[in-house]
Structures are given as structure tokens and as C-alpha cells.
Amino acid sequence: MKDTVRQVLVVISVLATLAVNALAEALPFNGLSTAQISDQFHVFFVPAGYVFSIWGLIYVGLVAYAVFQALPSQRQNPALRRTGYPVIVSGLANMAWLFLWHYLQFPLTLLVMLALLAVLIVIYLELGIGRTKVSAAEAWAVRVPFSIYLGWITVATIANVTDVLYYWNWNGFGISARNWTLVLFAAVLVIAGLMSLTRRDVAYNLVIVWALAGIAVKQSAAKSIVVSSLVIAFLVLAVLVYSLYRKGSAKTGS
Questions:
Q1: Of 80, 91, 86, 102, the residue nearest 29 (C-alpha)
Q2: Domain chopping of the chain, boundaries
Q3: Which one of 4, 70, 124, 166 has the largest count of C-beta atoms within 10 Å of its C-beta?
Q4: How far is residue 182's CA from residue 191's CA, in Å, rounded to a whole number?
């Protein structure tokens, strides 16, 4: 009975998250679209508008996950048992962030974004992505969606930090915004590199590359940002290919 309740609550949370996101743009909340608010922040770590279409892919993935985990055959799946309620919490955080963002409560959006990032990391670890084997159905319906989701929220968290610092008129300790952006790019490379070397997660890293390419498009007037973002994107791909090659070589050698 407890497993059935969990399955139902997960489905409800996913549907609620989709509904709130749709209403946030259709109404929109507080008379402002998400993009209109984002345009108030003149920061470099923000991709072109088309990049945000990845939310469509994330939501398709969440629906696939909700359906898969609701199957009777998955009722006692240990990984889905461990992650069901964290997924519900992630949905609540997603919805809370939207309300706070649209009502211009920017410092609070960062706290909620950090909470969302933390719970997605918990889900990712509990699913054993890159460490254990599962069926193809579970890989595509569960693991890939949360790899994509975590990849995007990793980028979104960094962007949220830059927005809040801009909102607070932070002077960057005298360091230029462009140079701070280069530091952020380096941090992204380290994070993505670790994900490649320890998890060999293709979906996660492709999201990072997607975002970096989008930053290059958005910041076309800032040549140093364009070059840096594209170089980092190339390095992220290079480390990913190397990690996959190393894995393949290890299997061949065995």
C-alpha cells in the first residue's frame, strides 16, 4: 500500500510541476514572463533564449519517469523506492522557485535553487547512474531524464548565483565581470570533467555543452566570452570522449 501511495504522489507531483510551469508563462505570474525577468540581469553567464527549450525535454523525461515508476512491475523497484519522495520534493522546489522568481524574491530563489540542486544530487546518487546496470527501459525512462535535469540545474544554479550577485550590486572584489565569468567556466569544466571521469554520463555532459554553446550565441558581442565558452565546451566533450574510450579499452582488455 505504501508503494502505491508513493507512486500516486509522484505522478501528482509531476503533473503539478508541469501545470505550474505552464501557468507561469500563460498567465503569467505577476504579469511578467520568466524571460522578461531574466533580461533585467546584465550578466555574461546566461545562454540564448532557445537554450531554455531544454525544459521541454526535461518535462518529457519527467512524464516518462512518472509513467514508468507507476507501473505495477516497478512498485518494489529499490531505486524507485529510494527516490520517490525526493522526486516529490524536487517538484515542490521547482514550483516554489517559479513563484519566487516571478514575484522578484531573488535571494530566496537562490536558496530554493540550491535545495533543488541538492535533492537532484541525492536522486542521482541513489539511482546509481554510471555505477550500476539497469534495463534499457529504466535507463531511458529514469536515469537519462535525471541526468539531463541535474545537468541543467547545475548550469541554472550558477546562473542564479550571478543574477543574485548582480541584484545585490556586488563589485566582484574589483575583478571584472568577464574575468569572473572565466572563473565560472573553469568551475563548469571541473564539474563536468568529474562527471565524465567518475560516471561517464553522456546526457549530463551534453547538457553542459548545450548551455555553453548557448552562452557563446547570447554573448556574441563579447569575444573573450564567446571563445572561452566554446573552448570549455570542446574540453568538456574531449574529457567525455576520453572517459568513454578508457571504459571501452578496459572492457576490451578484460
A1: 102
A2: 2-253
A3: 124
A4: 14
pLDDT at 249: 73
Q: For residue range 74-108, list pLDDT tens digits in order.
A: 999 999 999 999 999 999 999 999 999 999 999 99
Q: Are 50 and 124 in contact (CB under 8 A)?
A: no
Q: Which amino acid makes up residue 126?
A: E
**Residue 157 grid coordinates:** 544554479
Asked whether 115 and 100 are in contact (CB, 8 A), the reply is no
DSSP 67-88: HHHHSGGGTT-HHHHHHHHHHH
Which position has the grid cell 579499452? 249
Residue for cell digits 498567465? 27
The SS3 assignment for 244 reads helix
- CB contact at 8 A, 151 and 205: yes
